[in-house]
Amino acid sequence: MNVKAIINNVSCFVLIMKISLIRINLIFILLVLFIPNLASGETNTERSQHIEKLKNELNKSSRDTKNKKYKEGDDLLLIGKYKEAIDYFNKLIKLNHKDAEAYLGRARAYKEIGDYQNALKDFNQSINLNLRNEKAYYYRSVLYVHIKESLKAISDISKAIDLSNDPKDKKAWLWLRGSEYEDLGEYQKAIIDLDKCIELDKEYPDDLGWSADAYAERGSVFFRLGNYQQAIKEFDKAIELKPEEFGVYSDRGLAYDDAGDPQRAIIDYDKAFELAEKYERELRDLWEKQGWGHYQRTPNKNIYVIFIRRGAAYNKIGDIKRAVADFTNAIDYDPINPSAYFMRGFTYYYSNGDKGKGIEDMKIAARLGDIAAQNMLREKGIKW
Q1: Around Cβ 295, how many Cβ atoms within 10 Å?
Q2: 11 vs 255: CA distance, rounded Å
């Protein structure tokens, strides 16, 4: 078995997940643009990635609606009281069963509690009652993204773009559609949408920084195409525009790693960790200042991915001790994710010479569903 090939494959896997670090953060911010959902299922550090945007949005109305009757429901969504929001919108629907906005509000609340069936039903009803509400198409597209229905998501995003006259919305939605095209492997369409996002951002600039996000996503596209040097250039542009976006440093680090420069990759991973800690501190301070209750740091998938990436880079340069430490830290962040067990087990078995520990980690990874670990153990005749 080729150790370097396995390490490279796992490195590539870490970026080519359904949603990259940048995409996780931006899908969250796409929601913040319209209703800042501070108590969503996203982890604390993911929210903190756009801390300044959150601060700005807190001072705005919770929805750009002319009718104040929806404000109470929107406020409940804002603070994460989803069941109460459902009750509120139920009352509005009882008063008027053709209230498209009430169905939309209830759909968003259902989505946040994981009731996707009722969320989709309400999104459909809201759209049926008002075929020209671009926000309804947008919110339904986010649900489709979440349940991995990319073609349906793209269809809804396209309708939202066609209906919208707001450049801010169009920039966000062009980015989102571009990222979905990327996931479908339609890279040329992805680049076209991301370029349109950049051009629109130049024509109608604001403080949300969509050009940086589009350059970062272009970097992801070129990475998938195997053009690591161009990917690095795109990430450079994103970092120039948004120097504190820790996900971009992590993605650029992976591009350096796959371009054959793991030492340079580690520098970027270290910077990503430094910025992630800064965001965490800022979020904690904001949380306490706003009086949202006790702040509790939660395990974070972004940090997990960076540990895996840096551990793989350390393995490549022969620093096995630090590689094992990073994989162990990743396990501490997410003890039910098999990837770190597989990587640590592989490192123990092939690089550290401790086959016993390697097999034990591989067994855990196999039990958690890691196919590579299962195949490896099966080849050796070991049950897990």
Answers
A1: 14
A2: 10
